[in-house]
Amino acid sequence: MMAIENIHDLEVFCAIVGAGSFTGAARTLGITQPAVSLSVKRLERQLGTTLFDRHRFGSNEIALTDSGKVLARHAEAIVKNAAEAIDEIEGLERQQVIRLGLPPMIMEYYLAGRMDDLKRAFGGRAVSVCSYGSERMIREVKHHNIDVGAVASPSEALQIPYVKSVKVGSFPFCLAVPAGHPLATYSRMSLDVLAQLPDYPFVSFTKDFMQHDVLSGLFEDCGKVLNVAAETDQLPVLKRLVSTGIGIGLVTSLAVDEQRDGLHLIPIVGEGVPTFNVFVFEDVSRPVRQGRDAVARILKVLYSASRES
Fold first, then answer.
1. Do the Cβ atoms of 286 and 140 come closer than 8 Å?
2. DSSP-assigned beta bridge partners for residue 130
3. For the chain, is the Cβ count within 10 Å smaller at the N or the C terminus?
4. CA 259 to CA 257: how far, in whole Å?
5. What DSSP assignment string belongs to 225-291?
6. Which helix (H) or strand (E) holds 293?
7. Measured between alpha carbons, how far is 94 from 85 in angstroms, rounded to an integer?
8. Which of 185, 167, 193 is closest to 275 using CA atoms?
9. Residue range 95-106: average pLDDT?
């Protein structure tokens, strides 16, 4: 039986149809074009069919296959119904709970010494801390499921309706290797050099993390096949796997201390290379009601922590 595993892929498909191109969908969703392509590939693999006729593309325009037209007739309603169901269910459960979104890497880097300040900012209000990877966090923010928090994106701005955001940091993506690795002689690396590397195995984050799609996108841009030896959703585990030689990691300079972790970081640089941009945000459409003062206090702590880091 055919199954669609990730409703986000359907959202991407709808964005492509609505925008008329992969590039337009990427711009609308605030993600990279390789991430859009990966979502389409996953859908096509799961459905066992082709959704777009690649041979009929002119410039950036798209052409749906017959299967794609069938999916287009149903996908928007599926996405809308799922979002409405989630909103209705959560509306029953969280009218008086502030939902605070903090990806683990951002929490560790910015708030390691500020958790007491954050707790005081709650002001006695009930707070649900959602510590998702940035890729999932972006989806939750787009569905208006988070009141306030921080999130990372490769985009230069979070263009999400009813969500106010400010960029508070930008970090390069880096290859992480053990000190004795053949690549440890590099201080930085361009996409051209990355394309010429031997077929090294990689340790990847799972798809809830932005690095997953960025790594796949970099290899797609280089015309290389990505060899993934292991996946994890835990940064300490990824560091250990890299340090023991299981594979190369793709991390940000925010997440790794070279001396403490015993790893060598190689920033990937050049035109078109994405960066790990951190945003503090507030969703002004959320039904927090009496918690708006607490939201303002939480925002103040997040801004203060980012300025001091």
1. no
2. 101
3. N
4. 6
5. ---EEEEES-HHHHHHHHHTTS-EEEEETTT--HHHHTEEEEEEESTT--EEEEEEEEETTS--GGG
6. helix 292-308
7. 14
8. 167
9. 83
The runs of H, that is alpha helices, within the chain are: 7-19, 22-29, 33-47, 66-93, 104-111, 115-121, 134-142, 191-195, 210-222, 235-243, 258-261, 292-308
Digit-coded pLDDT (tens) for 236-268: 999 999 999 999 999 988 888 888 889 999 999
What would the two tokens of residue 270 be? 């050049």
Tell me the mean pLDDT in the region 228-234: 91
Per-residue CA distances from 245 to 25, 166, 182, 253 (Å): 38, 38, 11, 20
Q: Which domains does the chain have, with CATH numbers?
A: 7-90 (1.10.10.10), 94-169+276-308 (3.40.190.10), 172-274 (3.40.190.10)
206: its two tokens: 């799972």
Token pair in block for residue 4: 């669609």
Task: Give the global pTM.
Answer: 0.64
Angle between helices 33-47 and 7-19 (to 10 degrees): 120
Distance of CA 42 to the CA centre of its chain: 17
Q: List CB contacts of 249: < 8 A, sequence separation 6 or more.
A: 175, 176, 177, 202, 203, 204, 238, 239, 241, 242, 263
Closest CA to 32 of 254, 168, 221: 221
42, two tokens:
């996953």
Cβ count near 20 (within 10 Å): 12
